[in-house]
Specification:
It is a single chain. With 137 residues, the chain is mainly alpha-helical. The chain folds into two domains: 2-75, Arc Repressor Mutant, subunit A; 79-136. The protein is 69% helix and 9% strand. The chain contains six helices and three strands. β2 (60-64) and β3 form a beta hairpin. The longest helix has 27 residues, at 79-105.
Amino acid sequence: MVKFYGETLHIPPLAAKIYSYLIFDFEKKGICFDEFVQVFAASKSSVSANLNLLLNAKLIIDFNTIKERKRFFRINENYMTIRFEEIITKMKQEISILDQLHEFCKSNDEEQIQRFEIYRTLLNRNIKNIEETLHKI
C-alpha cells in the first residue's frame, strides 16, 4: 500500500506510510500525532511536515475531541471526489491544448486528424463517465 499510494499520489515515503496507516482506522476515531511518531520511529518535525503535506493535499483531515487537546487525523472521505474532479480538470485542459494545437497545425493528413478525433473522443467519454459516476457516489 505504501508503495502504491506513494507513486499514485506523488507523496514521499513517510507521507505514504501515514496515509496507509490511516486507511486501517476503520472506526474513523482518528490517530493522534504522538502515535505516528511512535509507530514510525520518526522525528516530530518529519511527522509534522508530512502530516501538513497530506492536509494541504486534502488527503486527510484533522480534528480535536472535546475530551482531549490532542489533534487527531483521519482519511478525508471526500478525497475521492476531489481527486477525480482534478482528473476531469486535467483532461479538459488537455482537450483545450489539443484543440489549439490542431488549429495551429491545420494539417490535412487524414490519419493524423482521425487519431486526434479518436483521442479527443476518448477523453470526452472518460470525462462523462467520471462525472456520471461521481454523481452516484
